[in-house]
Design a protein that fits this description.
Elements: H1 2-43, E1 47-56, E2 62-63, E3 69-72, E4 77-81, E5 99-103, E6 106-112, E7 118-125, E8 133-139, E9 143-149, E10 156-162
Antiparallel strand pairs: 1-2, 1-3, 1-10, 3-4, 4-5, 6-7, 7-8, 8-9, 9-10
């Protein structure tokens, strides 16, 4: 009786290990497919950055509502982000606060990051009232960091993710 119990427990443990290994293999395949999709979106100039946290210079991090995005396509960059920090030049129109622009003339550069599965995307606007620089640091799991440099304001960073649409 005791021997059959040991055999039964051994079989259950082996079966559970088999199920776990199947699940991790499938999970690895799903991760690779998601990474390939992110990689393709970056190379096609077609991705959306969803900001979840803002990191203003000299202030605490700020959790953001899910509506702040930067949409990048081959012919347009559309940014709708909040701004926290010091502005050196205030806008004449108070409704133009934040980082809110649409650009159709911009430079787009992609290069491999320092680590495997990392890309650095640099976008420099040419048709806004001032040149705005967007530096994305994107990982193959979809997480991303964005540094915004504007000559009229202190730099600000955002953390978020790339939509897998």
């Amino acid at each position: 009786m005791r021997r059959s119990f040991k055999l039964m427990m051994t079989a259950i443990i082996l079966f559970a290990g088999f199920l776990a290994s199947c699940g991790s293999a499938q999970n690895a395949a799903q991760k690779e497919a998601a990474a390939a999709k992110i990689r393709q979106q970056i190379q096609d100039f077609n991705f959306t950055f969803n900001a979840t946290y803002a990191y203003p210079m000299g202030y605490k991090s700020i959790y953001l509502s899910p509506y702040y995005t930067v949409k990048v396509s081959q012919d347009t960059v559309k940014a709708y982000l909040p701004y926290y920090g010091r502005a050196y030049v205030a806008p004449m129109d108070p409704s133009r606060g934040g980082i809110n622009f649409t650009s159709t003339k911009f430079d787009y550069r992609v290069k491999e990051g320092k680590k495997d599965g990392n890309w650095q995307v640099e976008i420099k606007t040419k048709d806004t009232d001032r040149e705005i620089l967007l530096n994305f640091d994107i990982w193959d799991n979809g997480s991303a960091k964005l540094d915004v440099t504007d000559p009229n304001r202190q730099p600000i960073s955002f953390q978020g993710n790339i939509s897998k649409e």
